[in-house]
Amino acid sequence: xxxxxxxxxxxxxxxxxxxxxxxxxxxxxxxxxxxxxxxxxxxxxxxxxxxxxxxxxxxxxxxxxxxxxxxxxxxxxxxxxxxxxxxxxxxxxxxxxxxxxxxxxxxxxxxxxxxxxxxxxxxxxxxxxxxxxxxxxxxxxxxxxxxxxxxxxxxxxxxxxxxxxxxxxxxxxxxxxxxxxxxxxxxxxxxxxxxxxxxxxxxxxxxxxxxxxxxxxxxxxxxxxxxxxxxxxxxxxxxxxxxxxxxxxxxxxxxxxxxxxxxxxxxxxxxxxxxxxxxxxxxxxxxxxxxxxxxxxxxxxxxxxxxxxxxxxxxxxxxxxxxxxxxxxxxxxxxxxxxxxxxxxxxxxxxxxxxxxxxxxxxxxxxxxxxxxxxxxxxxxxxxxxxxxxxxxxxxxxxxxxxxxxxxxxxxxxxxxxxxxxxxxxxxxxxxxxxxxxxxxxxxxxxxxxxx
Length: 452
Known about the structure:
With 452 residues, this protein is of the alpha/beta class. Helices cover 31% and strands 23% of the residues.
């Protein structure tokens, strides 16, 4: 890589989330002079206020049913008691630990860290909040996204997933506005911690983009657990009452009184005030940064990765994009592009969902003739405890070739099982090759090689 002394840095990254940290570290390893600006905390959404602390809350929530189920396995547990502040503080302490490790990784690779906001003020110039200006040969935008807050009366009284990790206490009644993965994950968490949960969704579909069979199964299970759903309900606003409760108005339904409103209706790319127009960076119709397959924007020297673009909004994808960018721009090999096909994903609901590949509807639209295999079963643990909750595994195959087009699952540990199954789908394996694999018995995962 040719060094360009006329610039202060070879790469300046705005945003120290998962994608920005990976890109900066790898670029520095290739010999680039790298700087990162982060106005909040190193680690980004996933580490600080997203998937990592949320998964810890999911673990904590699972104990509610596990402690109850323990009796069927011979355990006597007298008067279990949950203390939210203990879990909250332990989770936040671990977030701080992880932030330190991310910072240490950048330091160890010689990356300069500016703990302040940065904006573009000229094609190759970045101005920091302190007033300092620096120049860079290449600039990477990795500022991520934030929760969308509706423009309605009383919106200031609501919270988002960002604030959910810092609550002083678990609210007795929670209304969640939205039907996506964040809404359903927090619905499960709050419900297990004892809240009365109501989900308000403007359509009658939760988890849009996931296969109909698994999302319907989650809806059925959630309603059985006691989570309420109000469909075709447009959120109109809320008013704070004298006792601190919130009276929420929506279309098509009566008003409802709750103690907390959580907005979980999508995320918005963080692009405002970055000076992107000054640098000539084009945006999509949805307000994201437009990039090509190599993460390059319309400006020759400016790139973008992660949730600030209009691709797949998942942390592992942002990391892959950051790695590919650094290898392409600063490495010595051929350009590297991330393949966004067959990206596995999970919803850490109760129970969790995992998916890879095409849904049944997508497969029929693209391939016409497909074969669908289902396993609808009651996990062994649920049999002994008397729980009626059932798991569902679904495999969609091209009828002509037998190639697996998609796998969709809902049930205990579905995300853990899916990681290995996703490798097979990505590799283009067939149903026959799954059938030829000996089952591990007794497991839930064995259903994948026993589908008929």
